[in-house]
Amino acid sequence: MFSTIFARSPIQHFVLKHFLLFALLTAATHTFAQDGRLPLDSKNNISYTDSGQPRLSKTELHEKVKAWVDKKFGNAQNAITSDDTQAGIILITSYIPVIHSDYQYIRFDLGVQYKDNQYDARITTLDGVSAEHSPVRLNAKENDAITAKEQIVKTESNRKKRKEAEQALQSAKADNDGINASLYNLLGDLKTYMTGPKAE
């Protein structure tokens, strides 16, 4: 229907294609957008999840997860903390660089549960790591800080203080967005590897 309406000229066709591409990208971005907040599960714990349905047996998925860990983190033996082939669960503990004002890395736990033609991945237990201080456990307080800063911005009547509060809010949101970007990209990399062609 849309093609008959807009396909009158090559320019209109070009505009339609780019409009649809923009709409799809916007929808994909909003799928992961958290408005500066970290994703929480029903128990209020930070939780990033993803799943895939590669056409591989349980054994092939096990080998592929191990190969991805080896490729991504350099040494599967150091990163894999538990490998239960019977239950179909691999637990990984490692670090990922992050763009954040307080931390250079995020230490995380990644669990991958797999069975024939299906895997589920979940990242939990995050620690912010910096050379300047001990690791800091991240939790729902990161989101509470955003909410508190939003409230200050809404209620502050002094222009200068309001501007400072807005900057603090934007900085806190940018920090959380940096964590989200790193961890969603990690899950995306896992999905690309798991659903990609078999290694020869």
Question: Tags for this entry?
Answer:
disordered N terminus; elongated; six-stranded antiparallel beta sheet; 200 residues; single chain; alpha+beta; 2 domains; Alpha-D-Glucose-1,6-Bisphosphate, Chain A, domain 4
Head-to-tail CA distance between termini: 44 Å
Structural class: alpha+beta
CATH topology of the largest domain: Alpha-D-Glucose-1,6-Bisphosphate, Chain A, domain 4
User: Number of helical segments?
Assistant: 6
- Estimate nothing, just give the exact number of structural domains: 2
Number of strand segments: 6
Strand percentage, roughly? 15-25%
Mean of residue pLDDT values: 86
Largest sheet: 6 strands, antiparallel
Order of helices and strands: HHEHHEEEEEHH
Give the CATH architecture of the largest domain: 2-Layer Sandwich
CATH class of the largest domain: Alpha Beta
Evaluate the radius of gyration. Answer: 21 Å
As a percent range, the share of helical residues equals 40-55%
